[in-house]
Design goal:
The chain has 250 residues and is an alpha/beta fold. Helix content is 44%, strand content 16%. The protein is built from 11 helices and 8 strands. It has helices at 16-28, 47-57, 82-87, 98-104, 108-120, 133-137, 141-153, 180-198, 200-205, 216-223, 240-247; strands at 5-9, 37-41, 61-65, 90-95, 124-129, 163-166, 207-211, 230-233. It has an 8-stranded parallel beta barrel with strand order 1-2-3-4-5-6-7-8, surrounded by 6 helices. The longest helix is centred in the C-terminal third of the chain and has 19 residues, at 180-198. The structure holds 2-phosphoglycolic acid.
């Protein structure tokens, strides 16, 4: 049995004080999150503040980052290494989010290098894949994300833990929700990619998440799909009420 995983991706939202504030709100209602492994991914600037709140309150919510650079250290202005994240008790790190692919030019090869750097420090990579609207309209969604994932996975043999997130670009922040059965089929296709790369045992324990306009109202339908093991939530994770309403369904 794969343990369900709920991740909140705050993206470029919340100042330090706002992040500490919502971390406190989440801590007050920690019991809402007791049945599910929960991770929040604040901006880099708030990782330490959120971690302080959770460790002071003994809140069982884990910390994730939104990106990493693959080099260890050195003259890389503005970048953050896996070792720096590890030092802040980061357990998960999103890589390959479509917003990074679009705005920062991240390629599948970059994503593979980032995953390797994270694995070296015992941080679980959350590898995001997703197709643009034209690919979806041409009914090529599965083929597109299968190729994205296969490229990102090459060279990751020996990984102890990976999380895969299917986030169709046309569903992110758009309110255009993907049909749960369709999302379930694509997540199944992604698990088959993991199986081809690393074997059935590894694929069976790898969690595949769905993300894209997930809200309390639609979360349950995604979770009913056999191959969807959790949710990667953007805007609905910015408010403690909507995030905990999703957690209660998991
Ligand atoms: P959304 O974002 O829930 O706001 O659609 C999801 C994501 O991009 O991770």
């Amino acid at each position: 049995m794969r343990q369900k995983l709920l991740m909140g991706n705050w993206k470029m939202n919340k100042s330090y004080s706002q992040a500490v504030d919502i971390a406190q709100q989440l801590s007050y209602r920690a019991s809402d999150f007791s049945g599910v492994e929960t991770v929040v991914c604040p901006p880099f600037t708030s990782l330490k503040g959120v971690q302080n709140v959770f460790s002071f309150d003994n809140t069982p919510i884990k910390l994730g980052a939104q990106d990493v650079f693959w080099e260890e250290n050195g003259a890389y202005t503005g970048f953050i290494s896996a070792e720096m994240l590890k030092d802040l008790s980061v357990s998960y790190c999103i890589i390959g989010h479509s917003e990074r692919r679009q705005n920062a030019g991240d390629t599948d090869e970059d994503i593979q290098k980032k995953a390797q750097a994270l694995l070296k420090y015992g941080i679980t990579p959350v590898i995001c894949v997703g197709e643009p609207p034209v690919v979806h309209e041409a009914r090529n969604s599965s083929d597109f994300v299968i190729e994205q994932l296969a490229r990102a996975l090459s060279g990751l043999e020996g990984a102890k833990d990976l999380v895969i997130a299917y986030e169709p670009i046309w569903a992110i922040g758009s309110g255009n929700v993907a049909a749960p059965e369709f999302a379930g089929e694509v997540c199944h296709a992604l698990r088959v990619v993991v199986e081809k790369a690393f074997g059935k045992g590894f694929a069976d324990k790898t969690r595949v998440l769905y993300g894209g306009s997930v809200m309390a109202e639609n979360a349950g339908a995604y979770l009913m799909q056999d191959d969807i093991d959790g949710l990667l939530v953007g805007s609905a994770s910015l408010d403690e009420n909507s995030f905990s309403a999703i957690a209660k369904q998991m």
